[in-house]
Amino acid sequence: MRSRASNNRLSSSSGSAFGSRVLFLLLSMFATMASFYVAGRLWQDAEDRAYLSKELDRRTGQGHPVITVDDTLKVIACREQQKKLAALQMELGTARQEGFVSKNIPENSGTNTKKKLMAVIGVMTRFGHKNNRDAVRKAWMHTGAALKMLEGEKGMIIRFVIGRSAKLGDSLDRDIDSENRQANDFIILNDQVEAPELLPKKTKLFVGHAVEHWDAEFYVKVNDDIYVNIDALGAVLASNLDKTRAYIGCMKSGEVFSEPNHKWYEPDWWKFGDGKSYLRHASGEIYAISQALAQFILINRSMLRTYAHDDVSAGS
After folding, report:
1. Strand order in the sheet with 156-164
2. Which of 28, 45, 144, 257 is deepest in the core (most CB within 10 A)?
3. Helices (DSSP H) in 98-198: which residue ranges?
4. Contact criterion met (CB below 8 Å) for 210 and 99
5. What is the biggest distance separating any 2 CA atoms in the chain, rounded to whole angstroms?
6. What residues pair up with 309 in beta bridges, in sequence order?
7. What is the DSSP string of 85-121?
8. Which long-range contacts (CB under 8 A, 24 or more apart) does 175-183 make?
9. What is the full per-residue pLDDT of the chain (316 aa) written as tens digits?
10. Which residues does the UniProt record annotate as the domain DUF4094 (predicted)?
11. Rounded CA gap, 265 and 211, in Å?
């Protein structure tokens, strides 16, 4: 009995050892095949990357297939600078077409030896104000040869500024045309209807007209009931020649009135905030702006807003 049991145990042990060896062999074969598979994929990926890098070099003509973050930022910055330069060139071209001339360009280049004017003075007047105009001519503006002398000696052009009647060609227009033929001292804005409520737009048109017709250091707006000391005005302007963006006058602010029946009613009162206070600006009786600011008004006249009062409009 013991002999038969021993034989059974030996037979069972031999079967277990044989099974273990077969399992080990199978696992080894599987591991070897897996290693070959992974190695093959890695080799193929490396080949693909090498091919793509060479193809990129061939198509771009660059020897560096990797673009760093710094390189990308430099390219973006360069493109932004090119855009800004192109925009500035377009603005400069537009400004030149509108009559802008840099102050760095000599005034007496070539055969042009004409002296630059100190100021163009626009005296704002209206229909029915002939007595005011006559008083201004007698007091400080003068007429005829004396008016021409102011241009030559003082470098100042002085003109009354007026628009046209709402009924174009009526007696009001004819009277102004007749007065102008005698005195020759008007700027007549044919595209502007003469009305008190349109004075802000009239002032803006005067500045544009003056810049287009006269090359001056300053452009001055005066009401026709103001008496000007030409020598004192010239001294003030001369003392500000070094300021390329000068805005000269009696500076003030003031309350914005929202009541429609008020004399100084501002229809756009809500645009000035809860404080209802105007921005700081020169009083409308007389003020001056330098050539650079006048050219700015000329170039941007189509988009510059006007308010109920011409002095606030000029200040804005």
Report:
1. 186-193, 156-164, 117-124, 216-223, 281-290, 247-252
2. 257
3. 130-136, 144-149, 171-183
4. no
5. 158
6. none
7. HHHHHHHHHHHHHTT---TTS-TT-TT--PPPEEEEE
8. 175/127, 175/130, 176/127, 179/130, 179/133, 183/137, 183/143
9. 445 555 555 455 555 666 677 777 777 777 777 777 766 666 666 666 677 667 666 655 555 545 555 566 566 666 677 777 777 767 776 666 555 554 444 444 444 446 789 999 999 999 999 999 999 999 999 899 999 988 989 999 999 999 999 999 999 999 999 999 999 999 999 999 999 999 999 999 999 999 999 999 999 999 999 999 999 999 999 999 999 899 999 999 888 888 889 888 888 888 887 768 888 889 999 999 999 999 999 999 888 888 888 888 888 8
10. 21-97
11. 31
Give 211-231 as a DSSP string. Answer: HHH--EEEEEEEETT----HH
Residue 301 CB neighbour total at 10 angstroms: 15
* Contact call for residues 280 and 251 (beta carbons, < 8 A): yes
Distance between CA atoms of 248 and 142, rounded to whole angstroms?
24
C-alpha 125/C-alpha 132 separation (Å) is 8
Placement of tokens 């241009």 in the chain: 151
pTM: 0.64
8 A C-beta contact, residue 201 and residue 308: no
CA atoms in the 13 A half-sphere facing the CB of 232:
4
What does the buried/exposed string (b/e) look like for 228-261 if buried means 16 or more CB atoms within 10 Å of the residue's CB?
bebeebbeebeeeeeeeebbbbeeeebebeeeee
Q: Are strands 247-252 and 281-290 parallel, antiparallel or unpaired?
A: antiparallel
CB 145 within 8 A of CB 172: no
Q: Which of 215, 222, 214, 227 is nearest to 248 (CA)?
A: 222
Cα separation of 285 and 21, whole Å?
115
